[in-house]
C-alpha cells in the first residue's frame, strides 16, 4: 500500500480555520500566528493542489466551490482528532481523594490496608493526610476524615466506623499472666491531646481491675500513640492501647493482651462535609466499612 501524499498539516489547519471563521485574521488569532503566515500557508496549499480556495473580499474571505468540497472533510477530521485526544487525556486523568486521620490511625490501621483499596478501586488514588489536628473539611484540605471521639460533629455527616476498646498489651516475651505482674513492669503512656473524664488511662484501668498501689504516673510517655505501640512491641513495657489499632499486631503475635479488664472507648467515626457526597467519597466510605467489618469479624 503506497503512502499517503498529503499537503503539510500546517497548511491544512490554516485552511480549515480560515474557512470556518471566514477570516485570515481570526484564523491567525486562533492558531497564534500572524495573518501573513496564514496567507502564505493558504497560497502554498493552493499551489500544491492547483486550485484557488478563497475569494479575498474587503472584510472576509469566501470559499470557492473547490474549497467547499474540501472544508467539511477537514472539519470532521480535525473534530475526530480532538475527540480522540480528549478521550485519551481523560483516561490518563486519575481521580483522587484525600482522607485525613491521626498519625497513629494512619500508621497502624490505614497504611496496612491501602493495597486492599488499590485492588478495589484501581482508577482512584487515595491520599492519606496524617495529622493529630482536625482539618477543616469544608476548606478543601481533605475530602473526608477519621475522627475519634464522642461526637456529634457540627456541619459534618458522621458515621460510626470502629468501636474502640482499650486493654493492656505487651510483647509476649515479657511473659505476663495476671494484673499483679504489672508491678514489675514499666508502664507505657500515650498522651491524649484533649483528654476527657472518659479517656482510657492507667488510673481508670487500675480502678476497674481493682489493682491498688500501682504508680500509674511512672513509666515512659509518648506524644504519638504509634510510638507507644512500637515500644510495646520492642518489649519496653506494657501499654494501654486501642485493640483496634493493634489488631494486626495481636493477630501476628508480636503483641498479646495478657489479661483484662477492657475499657470501653469512643468510636472512630467516618466524617465528611454535610453536602452531597461525590461518588469517590461514597466509594471510600464503603471500603472503610468493609474493612472495619472484616476486622470486627476476626476479633470475634
Features:
D-Maltodextrin-Binding Protein, domain 2; 10 helices; five-stranded mixed β-sheet; rod-shaped; alpha/beta; Arc Repressor Mutant, subunit A; 300 residues
What's a concise summary of this model?
The protein has 3 domains: 9-92, Winged helix-like DNA-binding domain superfamily/Winged helix DNA-binding domain (Arc Repressor Mutant, subunit A); 98-160 and 267-299, Periplasmic binding protein-like II (D-Maltodextrin-Binding Protein, domain 2), CATH 3.40.190.10; 165-264, Periplasmic binding protein-like II (D-Maltodextrin-Binding Protein, domain 2, 3-Layer(aba) Sandwich). Helices cover 41% and strands 19% of the residues.
Distance between the termini: 70 Å
- CATH topology heading of the largest domain: D-Maltodextrin-Binding Protein, domain 2
CATH architecture assignment name of the largest domain:
3-Layer(aba) Sandwich
Q: Roughly how many Å is the radius of gyration?
A: 34 Å
Compute the number of structural domains: 3
Low-confidence stretches: none
User: Biggest sheet: strands side by side, in what order?
Assistant: 4-3-5-12-6
Question: Can you tell me the overall shape?
Answer: rod-shaped
Instruction: Compute the number of helices.
Output: 10
* Top CATH class of the largest domain: Alpha Beta
Strand residues, percent: 15-25%
Assembly state (oligomeric):
single chain
The level of helicity is 40-55%
Number of strands: 12
CATH superfamily of the largest domain: Periplasmic binding protein-like II
How would a textbook summarize the main sheet?
A: 5 strands, mixed
- Helix and strand run: HHHEEHEHHEEEEEHEHEHEEH
Return the average pLDDT rounded to an integer. 90
Structural class: alpha/beta
Amino acid at each position: 500500500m503506497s503512502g499517503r501524499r498529503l499537503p503539510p498539516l500546517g497548511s491544512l489547519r490554516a485552511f480549515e480555520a480560515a474557512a470556518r471563521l471566514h477570516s485570515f485574521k481570526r484564523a491567525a488569532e486562533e492558531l497564534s500566528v500572524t495573518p501573513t503566515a496564514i496567507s502564505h500557508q493558504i497560497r502554498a496549499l493552493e499551489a500544491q493542489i492547483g486550485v484557488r480556495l478563497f475569494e479575498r473580499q474587503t472584510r472576509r474571505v469566501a470559499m470557492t466551490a473547490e474549497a467547499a468540497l474540501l472544508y467539511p472533510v477537514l472539519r470532521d477530521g480535525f473534530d475526530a482528532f480532538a475527540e480522540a485526544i480528549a478521550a485519551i487525556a481523560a483516561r490518563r486523568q486519575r481521580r483522587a481523594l484525600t482522607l485525613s486521620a491521626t498519625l497513629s490511625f494512619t500508621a497502624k490501621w490505614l497504611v496496612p490496608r491501602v493495597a486492599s483499596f488499590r485492588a478495589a478501586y484501581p482508577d482512584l488514588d487515595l491520599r492519606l493526610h496524617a495529622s493529630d489536628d482536625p482539618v477543616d473539611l469544608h476548606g478543601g484540605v481533605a475530602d473526608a476524615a477519621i475522627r475519634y471521639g464522642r461526637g456529634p460533629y457540627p456541619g459534618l455527616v458522621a458515621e460510626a466506623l470502629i468501636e474502640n476498646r482499650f486493654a493492656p498489651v505487651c510483647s509476649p516475651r515479657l511473659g505476663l499472666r495476671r494484673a499483679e505482674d504489672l508491678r514489675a513492669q514499666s508502664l507505657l503512656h500515650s498522651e491524649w491531646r484533649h483528654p476527657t473524664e472518659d479517656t482510657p488511662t492507667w488510673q481508670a484501668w487500675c480502678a476497674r481491675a481493682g489493682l491498688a498501689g500501682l504508680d500509674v504516673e511512672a513509666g515512659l510517655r509518648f506524644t504519638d500513640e504509634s510510638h507507644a505501640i512500637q515500644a510495646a512491641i520492642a518489649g519496653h513495657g506494657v501499654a494501654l492501647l486501642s485493640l483496634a489499632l493493634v489488631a494486626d499486631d495481636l493477630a501476628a503475635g508480636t503483641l498479646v493482651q495478657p489479661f483484662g479488664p477492657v475499657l470501653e472507648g469512643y468510636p472512630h467515626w467516618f466524617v465528611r462535609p454535610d453536602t452531597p457526597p461525590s461518588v469517590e467519597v461514597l466509594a471510600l466510605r464503603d471500603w472503610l466499612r468493609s474493612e472495619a467489618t472484616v476486622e470486627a469479624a476476626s476479633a470475634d
